[in-house]
Design goal:
It is a single chain. The chain is of the alpha+beta class. It folds into three domains: 142 residues, no CATH class; 221 residues, no CATH class; 203 residues, no CATH class. 26% of the residues lie in helices and 26% in strands. It has 20 helices and 33 strands. Strands 24, 25, 26, 27, 28, 29, 30, 31, 32 and 33 form a ten-stranded mixed β-sheet that branches. It has a nine-stranded mixed β-sheet with strand order 9-7-6-10-8-11-15-16-17, with helices on both faces. The protein has a six-stranded antiparallel β-sheet with strand order 1-2-3-4-14-13. A hairpin with a 6-residue loop joins strand 27 and strand 28. Helix 2 packs across helix 3. It is globular, with a radius of gyration of 29 Å.
Length: 712
């Protein structure tokens, strides 16, 4: 392996030739798979690199018998039927599914196409072959963290600083103008000046100010507090997966002195051993020519609740003023053992296309490591706190298993991105074909751009809609992520909320926005996970923040007319002392709303003996909306559904907003299902989506007599 041309084993050749829209078996056991891998088949080499068994299993792996004594294994495939040959067909996207007892089920895909057909998409096959013969993978090196890797990081940062208007020269703050580099600095940082000899220490902001030449003791300026501008050196930040808190390095009252004096990277307190991601991050920052990095567990006292609350409220400034953030993605699979630096999981040759012979026809074949697989789906980026860290930082370097990825306000990049013309054009073609018809990932850099202009601005309804929609996308993504402590759910999103508030001037209410309240109230839980849903005591029932154990979905306004059927009279958002941050932990959150109260229960129709929902007025005496309509009930949890349907209980519904469809007939209504707590105080228990398709005035009944109630 190592040239432009590579091999295909007999089984992989047959897989492509036969083709099938349904799944068929490629390899039934590991013995069969190893035999193909030994023949240097490029497809089997991809599969081996991406799905190696853990070390205890690998010992003696090539001597296993057909029964695969270490567990279940199999590889299946699905490929569109190429008929006779590939010449008259577009590139094929072949999907493989690997199932094993040690890693569950994983899926990969690759593209294959005819070299002769490249000319049809304005790519020269001769130029492509020439570029592959130049071995572009030789510039990467076998290890992540090598001099070649550092050179690429330097190149990304320099290019970003010189050319990216959105990223600007304010290193990490995509907000108000006038805050130049170094006007903010965290309370503490890790000093890596001696990291190359294995020693780090923690430093207070005042110490750093003296070292940097400031004349006066530094005071913490924030985005909302004017003050004397101090100049500080730039600092980096680290996003990492914590693992078991008691078994990782951290700043405590009884470890502070050791950390201040300086400790060896292989004796970090209180565990007195190394933590690979911290070690590698310190070395990376030092090797790149910088001195300071902020690491949460080493820069915030972990045995002081009051300090943690105070520091948590400054996360917006800590991350957006960071020169660059390091994302320890690959280390998050096993943070106690894995660091940033490692041998590439995919050999550098396998990151580029190869030429193979199929039916005596020269073809190109390429497995492009996707951003989704390498970045989005790692355990680290499924953590709630990390969503905020990615949003707030201007630049992020993602350390993945096979290469390093770059993310900033103006786009993404990776180490293996081709620089030669034909390879770059082929990659662009493959990525555009793959993206067509698929669900897009959350583009953080695009969403961050929307919040760069600060309020007040000339009124722009479309801009506000775009900002509110971006918030909803962030929330839907964030709610699907994990948090160790349910009490962190509001705090871990507070930095993003403050950035959105600066862009809109709107009032923030426990995860919702006053200017978009109708929309923000009509969320629903993931239907498949309702049995796992828990209600949090740290947020009001009307907020999505009150839901743990499930993702949420919001219903967006249509492009046509919509009508609001309730009115907010007063909001009472009371933060938890001592800090009193209304974006963080709350003591209570209540909304006084003026709305129409309706009632709902499940009844049997006499005529058809079928169950259907019936609606009642305030006195529960007459029905309406019973014909030419349908209703969808979504309870917030499985136990609520069982409770309300068991005895056909009558419960309260308030209409929130409705619309008429683009063709002017079907009418939609979104309502909250409520449970009376006491008096006029109600808790949310679910969402009702109702539609009516007749041309009559029954829709207007939702604008009937209003009452004042309190949502809690």
């Amino acid at each position: 392996m190592g040239g432009a041309e590579e091999k295909l084993c007999e089984k992989c050749t047959k897989m492509i030739q036969v083709g099938s829209y349904t799944r068929h078996t490629l390899h039934r056991n590991y013995h069969e798979f190893i035999a193909s891998k030994k023949s240097w088949c490029i497809i089997c080499s991809w599969l081996w690199a991406l799905h190696q068994p853990p070390d205890p299993i690998k010992q003696g792996i090539e001597d296993v018998d057909d029964n695969c004594v270490f567990g279940k294994f199999g590889i299946s495939f699905r490929v569109p039927n190429p008929d006779d040959d590939l010449i008259h067909h577009p590139p094929l996207n072949i999907h493989l599914s690997i199932e094993s007892s040690w890693a569950g089920v994983s899926r990969i895909s690759f593209h294959i196409g005819s070299l002769e057909k490249l000319d049809n998409i304005r790519i020269s096959s001769c130029a492509l072959l020439s570029e592959l013969e130049a071995h572009p993978w030789s510039t990467l090196g076998p290890n992540i963290g090598s001099d070649e890797s550092l050179g690429k990081i330097h190149q990304w940062i320099s290019s970003c600083q010189a050319n990216h208007t959105s990223c600007g020269s304010i290193h990490g703050y995509h907000g108000s103008p006038g805050l130049e580099t170094g006007t903010f600095f965290p309370t503490r940082v890790v000093d890596v000046e001696k990291a190359d000899v294995g020693i780090i220490s923690i430093r207070d902001r005042a110490e750093v100010a003296v070292q940097f030449g400031a004349e006066n003791e530094a005071r913490l300026p924030t985005s909302t507090e004017p003050g004397t501008v101090h100049k500080y050196p730039v600092y980096w930040t680290l996003s990492h997966r914590w693992g078991n808190t008691d078994e990782m390095p951290r700043l405590l009252k009884d470890t502070e002195l050791r950390l201040r004096k300086g400790v060896r990277l292989d004796e970090l307190p209180p565990i007195n051993k190394t933590w690979p991601a911290f070690r590698d991050a310190a070395l990376l920052v030092k090797r790149l020519g910088y001195r300071y990095i902020w690491i949460d567990s080493l820069c915030i006292f972990q045995d002081s609740a009051s300090e943690w609350q105070r520091e948590a409220s400054t996360m917006i400034d800590i991350y957006r003023h960071s020169h660059c953030n390091i994302s320890a993605g690959s280390a998050s699979y096993n943070p106690a053992k894995n660091g940033l630096f490692r041998r590439r999981k995919l050999h550098e040759r396998l990151l580029y296309p190869a030429v193979v012979n199929l039916n005596a026809q020269p073809c190109w074949i390429w497995h492009i490591p996707h951003w989704n697989d390498q970045v989005e789906r790692v355990p680290l980026n499924r953590r709630g706190w990390v969503v905020q860290e990615r949003f707030l930082t201007t630049r992020t370097i993602h350390f993945a298993e096979s290469q390093i990825f770059w993310e900033c306000l103006e786009g993404t990049d990776c180490e293996s991105k081709p620089t030669s013309k034909s390879l770059a054009n082929l990659e662009k073609k493959i990525r555009s074909d793959t993206a067509r018809g698929s669900t897009a990932v959350l583009d953080f850099y695009k969403i961050k751009e929307i919040t760069t202009e600060l309020y007040p601005l000339p009124h722009d309804e479309e801009r506000l809609k775009k900002i509110y929609r971006s918030w909803v996308r962030i929330v839907e993504y964030y709610a699907s992520c994990e948090l160790t402590k349910e009490s962190d759910r509001l705090i871990a999103v507070s930095g993003m909320a403050k950035a959105f508030q600066e862009a809109t001037g709107d009032t923030y209410m426990a995860g919702l926005w006053k200017g978009d309240l109708d929309h923000c109230l009509t969320w629903q839980v993931n239907i498949q996970r309702r049995d796992q849903v828990r209600r949090s005591e740290y947020a009001p029932s009307w907020s999505w923040v009150s839901i743990s154990g499930s993702s949420v979905k919001f219903y967006t306004y249509p492009e046509v007319h919509h009508t609001s059927y309730f009115k907010l009279i007063e909001e009472r958002i009371v933060p938890e002392p001592p800090n009193g941050d209304s974006f963080g932990l709350l003591r209570s959150a209540e909304l006084d709303v003026e709305c129409m109260l309706c009632y709902l229960r499940l009844q049997k129709e006499t005529k058809f003996e079928q169950e259907r929902w019936e609606y009642y007025d305030k006195a529960q005496s007459w029905r309406f909306f019973e014909r030419d309509s349908n209703v969808m009930i979504q309870y917030d949890s499985k136990n609520l559904e069982e409770f309300y349907q068991a005895d056909r209980k009558v419960f309260t519904v308030i209409p929130v907003w409705g619309d008429i469809s683009a063709w002017g007939r079907r009418k939609w209504m979104y309502c909250l299902i409520l449970k009376c707590d006491v008096g006029k105080r109600f808790k949310r228990v679910g969402l009702m989506k109702w539609y009516h398709w007749k041309e009559d005035r029954t829709f207007d009944r939702w604008a009937g007599p209003k009452r004042l109630i309190t949502l809690i």
